[in-house]
Amino acid sequence: MPAHTLPAASPLMLSVLLTTAQTPHAAAPTAPIRVDCFGALREIIHEGRLEPRAPIAVALTRPHAYGLGARARLDGEFIILDGRVYQTRPDRRGGIQPAAYDAVRDSATLLVMSHVAAWRDLRVTKPITIRALQDTLAARAPALGLPAAGPFPFLVEGAVTGLRWHVADGRLLAPGPSSHEAHARAAVKGASDAASARFLGFYSDHDQGVFTHHDVEVHLHALLDGGVAAHVDSLCVSAGAVLRLPVAR
């Protein structure tokens, strides 16, 4: 699928982008790696707020952008890897289709983003489930100058097993407040017993209801074969894969 980087923006364009976006939830100013979040999961699920909260282009006004989230009206999912945007939408026939990025029109109901110029690679030596991954991130973070509590982004590249993913389809939701179960039903789902892919996640032990669900401490998206961007529900990272953590500046 075509992936695009936002062209150099004029001062006027930057002003429009930044004033169009609503004020994000932000990490503390002293955080070594800043994480910003537009929208919140609790608002999406419990208040039925599916409207655009920020243009996706907001993330691309600085170099080395990494981000993930849900498109406006929950019309699919996206992932941003070093300034390149990949999107996937439901095709209205029970499947999914990649969607070319449009810097002017595309916006997000939820956008979690950061900017990372350098990463430290850690080789995975034994299989790690999502639950164990949370503990690994907290344990490894301090050595790289990152807070053990988060928030910060991370990357996983390589083989995984037990991959379960979904792409949101907001058209299948009734208007207004909803539930986790209803959102799970209103999605196109996929699975793979073994896969190799790129993953971007955000870790925090105190952002439940903002950008992580109430029972987990990571929000993880995948870039799969064919340029498919999807939200990850479960996986086990295989030995030999690479876990990448940001180098704090």
Secondary-structure map:
Blueprint: H1 11-20, E1 25-26, E2 36-38, H2 41-46, E3 54-55, E4 65-71, E5 77-81, E6 84-90, E7 96-99, E8 107-115, E9 119-123, E10 128-129, H3 130-140, E11 152-168, H4 180-185, E12 187-203, E13 218-224, E14 228-237, E15 242-246
Antiparallel strand pairs: 1-2, 2-8, 3-8, 4-5, 4-8, 5-6, 6-7, 9-15, 10-14, 11-12, 11-14, 11-15, 12-13, 13-14
Description:
By secondary structure, the protein is mainly beta. The chain is globular, with a radius of gyration of 17 Å. It folds into two domains: 11-115, 60s Ribosomal Protein L30, Chain: A, CATH 3.30.1330; 119-246, 60s Ribosomal Protein L30, Chain: A, CATH 3.30.1330.80. Residues 1-21 have low confidence and may be disordered. It has helices at residues 11-20, 41-46, 130-140, 180-185, and strands at residues 25-26, 36-38, 54-55, 65-71, 77-81, 84-90, 96-99, 107-115, 119-123, 128-129, 152-168, 187-203, 218-224, 228-237, 242-246. Strands 1, 2, 3, 4, 5, 6, 7 and 8 form an eight-stranded antiparallel beta sheet that branches. It has four helices and 15 strands. Helices cover 13% and strands 41% of the residues.
